[in-house]
Amino acid sequence: MFTLFLTAESEFALPPAGCTLVYRPDRVRDPYLDDGAPPAYVAQLYFDALAALEDAAAQIAVSAEAQAMAVHRFAVPQPWQRVPARYCTYLVAYEGPADDEAGWLTYYLKHHPPLMAKLPRIRELEIYTPLEWRCPPQLRRVRHLQRNKVAFDSAADLGAALDSPVRREMRADFAQFPPHRGRVTHYAMTTEVLRP
User: CB under 8 Å to 72, separation ≥6 — which residues?
Assistant: First the structure.
């Protein structure tokens, strides 16, 4: 599965996709981090084929930041039986680069998701890795080393997870990551499902 992240200052018309999520800023205290103001508007579109993603991207008429990525889904103990129309998500981006990108991603995908899946009341866990793709000229292509998200029923549940013992385990694992540079951002966002 493939996903397209689009970041802009305000809403804009989105092309059809298998599923579309829209993220807007939420307020959740992270006891470890404060990465400043979150982006005003992020859209995430899912596709079964890269060609379909590229065709949809070509239909977008605004100058948004864009990145196409491969989707890696991980099981959690209590997933939603039916995804709600609105929930709370923690969006994370590792802007990179890494000294050894393949080695960095291999380490992350092996070690970090088992810890993330233990966060209390987590409902969804996805990790995204970069792709080569045809970005249309009206979009501003970005290439982050990796992105991920963890989703919860509410901002209160996310806040409790961020202050849990599991989060301390995650911070300890972060210290073991292979060498990488660039910002790492963490933003609490209200998520709206536009097309389930």
Answer: 109, 126, 127, 128, 129
